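Hallway conversation turned thread

IA: we were arguing at lunch whether anyone had actually written out Protein kinase domain-containing protein end to end. Turns out nobody had. So, for the record, here is the sequence (454 residues) and right after it the structure tokens. Reply here if something looks off.
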Amino acid sequence: MEGKSSVRFTLGKQSSLAPERQPKDSDTEEEELEEIDPSVRLMYAANEGNLDGIRELLDLGIDVNFRDIDNRTALHVAACQGYADVVSLLLDNGAQVETKDRWGSTPLADAIYYKNHDVIKLLEKRGAKPLMAPMHVNHAREVPEYEINADELDFTNSVEITKGTFRIASWRGIQVAVKRLGEDVISDEEKVKAFRDELALLQKIRHPNVVQFLGAVTQSSPMMIVTEYLPKGDLRQFLKRKEALKPATAVRFALDIARGLNYLHENKPPIIHRDLEPSNILRDDSGHLKVADFGVSKLLTVKEEKPLTCQDTSCRYVAPEVFKNEEYDTKVDVFSFALILQEMIEGCAPFSAKQELDALKSYTAKERPPFRAPAKHYSRGLKELIQECWNENPAKRPTFRQIITRLESIYNSIGHKRRWKVRPLKCFQNLEAMLKKDLSLTDSSRSSRSTNSK
């Protein structure tokens, strides 16, 4: 389909296709629309609520169940936008009510998500059935304490943070990040288990350097996880803008990450993150970092049923023992931490010239990213700490408690040097001012004595 038209667009609340809107006269707009593939025009008409346009296209024989690059149909689009009359027209012309997009979401699920109640009633009347959330309980007293009423989440001005996963929403007067689990999760026991495991971990976590879990929607579909929203973005975005950081900033950020990970590792039982990388570390309003995204985290006591793959996480920061499917513990996070710390100083990702899988193969071959930054950027003991953290033998890697102690010492030494550069200048400035004052007083006294003698 993409070959038929070079036009790419966003459809209101969709990530589907719709021409970008520019101020132009109606004749120009009609001419441009005529150049677009008719099937794509059907999606656009559904997004605009254009009943006449939809009828015209359907009369031409356009497939009412045409799917865009995200596997959405015109019915998905109309359901999201809340156009009950468009939904009715599409259904009358054979639109499939239970069709699913690439995230496993049906038109009814989309209508429920955006609280388009007229569309919900219409779809249910035509046979659409909401899937029962797999964590649904029969008695009110069994509802988890963290349960959030889905009606309290307002997606009116929602914006995607991560395509298909996280969105910004409004909840009780504040902005929150919402992780939506598509309806494909409901029929996949493995994904439901992963969702339960993630909730079990999030309930345990309360720390300034870990993103705060606020609640979840488990009694209705789609299921959602709600966490605090940090508008300053992640460390990956920050590093792309800043590249290499000043040593003091890199060490301060490293301390934030280490404190968050130390908290997780000292949990009873310990929590292994397993997916520690810059995009999973967020910045708060004060400029501090918080560890986030526990989708592939695990309790140390839980035995792995299958190996972690690069489909689950980013290979570039994964410890070699994970890739080799060996037994591992909290030290896998220490390995990832070393790569991130070095990246903050070097200004580029580890083995940036290599593909992710090739970078991981380099780790298993006992290769490590080179130190290219000037020696002065690695404060005393910092390079040695990084090398210890990515040691081939996990047992020889330090714990985060030990890492914090060493980073604090390094950070204090950086601050001490900076203070020594300033203090002598202030002293000399004060001394100079005092000397000038004394000289002025002396000259004044001499002048006074000379006048008196005359």
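OS: looked through it. Residues 82 and 286 are 39 Å apart (CA to CA).
IA: good, adding that to the notes. Residues 150-228 form a domain with the Phosphorylase Kinase; domain 1 fold (CATH 3.30.200.20).
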